[in-house]
């Protein structure tokens, strides 16, 4: 095979132009998500394989299914960033996995689970865990007046209510009798290095719900 300098230079030029043009739309596109294969090359590969990609990667139907799909693809990439806190997809999956199993042990199918949590990583963990467990997710705003929160809890009649340290006192003032789970404390007390390492290594074969 002979080396064709002109062909190689032209190919590199086309790749460079394609890569430099992509971040312009949108500006928030991560550099790690850029593909180095040109569209014409993708079409060529597709013709060779004669494979319908859409049948291999069907679009997920729910939020937590989409989360699992993203974890399979980007396990070590950042999934959640808030202030100075950052979690990768595998780290987030671990917390969701632990809380989901705990909820499944405490509930029945299609049971309503409320969550009263301020904007935080615990809010995302709680929401994904509730959805993954098969329960009905009912968010409560900690900014609502005490009487409104009390009424909403009475109307939905949840057996379980997820909270965190910042909303603990708020919910206690509603005098609810349902089971309270403080998400941040639960994650700390149930951390298991072995399970975490397994999820980090084999997150591509872990499915929730």
Automatic annotation (TrEMBL):
GO biological process, any: amino acid activation for nonribosomal peptide biosynthetic process
GO molecular function per UniProt: phosphopantetheine binding
InterPro entries assigned: AMP-dep_synth/lig_dom, ANL_N_sf
Span of domain AMP-dependent synthetase/ligase: 70-165
Gene Ontology CC: one annotated term: cytoplasm
PANTHER family (alphabetical): FATTY ACID SYNTHASE (PTHR45527:SF1), NONRIBOSOMAL PEPTIDE SYNTHETASE (PTHR45527)
Name the UniProt record assigns to this protein: AMP-dependent synthetase/ligase domain-containing protein
Species of the source: Adineta steineri
């Amino acid at each position: 095979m002979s080396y064709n300098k002109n062909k190689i230079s032209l190919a590199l030029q086309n790749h460079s132009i394609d890569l430099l043009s992509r971040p312009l739309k949108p500006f928030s596109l991560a550099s790690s998500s850029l593909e180095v294969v040109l569209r014409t090359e993708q079409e060529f590969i597709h013709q060779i394989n004669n494979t319908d990609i859409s049948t291999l990667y069907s679009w997920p139907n729910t939020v937590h299914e989409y989360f699992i799909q993203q974890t399979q693809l980007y396990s070590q990439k950042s999934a959640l960033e808030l202030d100075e806190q950052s979690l990768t997809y595998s780290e987030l999956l671990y917390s969701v996995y632990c809380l989901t199993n705990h909820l499944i042990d405490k509930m029945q199918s299609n049971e309503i689970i409320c969550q009263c949590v301020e904007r935080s990583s615990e809010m995302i963990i709680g929401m994904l865990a509730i959805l993954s467990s098969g329960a009905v997710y009912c968010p409560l705003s900690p900014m609502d007046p005490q009487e409104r929160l009390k009424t909403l809890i009475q109307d939905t009649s949840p057996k379980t209510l997820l909270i965190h340290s910042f909303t603990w006192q708020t919910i206690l003032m509603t005098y609810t009798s349902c089971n309270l789970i403080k998400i941040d404390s639960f994650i700390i007390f149930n951390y298991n290095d072995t399970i975490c390492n397994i999820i980090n290594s084999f997150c591509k074969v872990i499915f929730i719900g």
